[in-house]
Request: fold
Amino acid sequence: MDEMDKMLKDAFSGMDNGSVPFGFSDKIGNKIAAEAVKRADREELVKNILLAVLFAVLFLTALLLLNKYYFGIDSVRISGIISEMPDFGSKMRNLFGSGESILWMVIGMNVALLLLAERIMSHRISSKDKKNTEA
Reply:
């Protein structure tokens, strides 16, 4: 080492490199917490989307099975459906005209409304929690 290197070493060794600006750790902690909340929200959204896709696939499968076994419509033979329309209408009337099917439709609508209300309430509660943590 020459003289210049020794002077630089002495100058830099005298500096206090352990301290950070005031509030730096709080700002970084808040940013990390905000990022964790964003990731949790993204994960919840992805889970909800996957669950909705799963239910859609199950519902579509149920409709296809209902078409095949109850209505006797083969999904591959779509061109022949026009000639089967009168029979299809009477089967639909028989299916949805009974008292039991109306009861199940009302129960299904109630379940859908309750799920919608729960989703709205959970969104409002989570947004209030976010506002309280930010304040």
In short: The mean pLDDT is 79. Helices lie at 3-13, 24-71, 85-97, 99-134. The CA atoms of residues 125 and 131 lie 10 Å apart.
